[in-house]
Amino acid sequence: MMSEAITHLKVPMEREEKDVCLGPDGSVAHVARVLRMISGRWKLPILFRLFAEPSMRSSQLLRDIPNISQKMLTQHLRELENDGLVVRRDFGEQPPRVEYGLNDSGRSLMPVLMSAREFSRLHPERNTRLSG
């Protein structure tokens, strides 16, 4: 801790303020990471369904999310699991029974997504494109 403080004192103040936003551990990098985690056509519908229902089988998700294929559901569930937002529970039964749910990280992301929803509702789309 002391070495961090000493190093911190050697960094010029202007640079420090810029790094808080733009540095490798800055605000932009963290928000971009979250956006990568939730990007993909089906990830938000999956997250919102798992928020509404604490535990779901993939067959339930297939029924609830129109037009998603089994392949894309499986791919996005794996990515969400790898990113630490979704937990996969295999009950080790025959026939196989697997359920998915949000873990603590996934649940903690939901207020952020709800805030984004509210932002969208309060700021409707406008045609602001510049004509070229």
UniProtKB/TrEMBL annotation:
Gene3D superfamilies: Winged helix-like DNA-binding domain superfamily/Winged helix DNA-binding domain (1.10.10.10). The keyword Disulfide bond does not apply. InterPro entries: ArsR-like_HTH, HTH_HxlR, WH-like_DNA-bd_sf, WH_DNA-bd_sf. Keywords: DNA-binding, Transcription, Transcription regulation. GO terms for molecular function: DNA binding. The keyword Transcription applies. Pfam families: HxlR (PF01638). One of its GO terms (biological process) is regulation of DNA-templated transcription. PANTHER family: TRANSCRIPTIONAL REGULATOR, TRANSCRIPTIONAL REGULATOR, MARR FAMILY. This is DNA-binding HxlR family transcriptional regulator. The lineage of its organism: Bacteria, Pseudomonadati, Pseudomonadota, Alphaproteobacteria, Hyphomicrobiales.
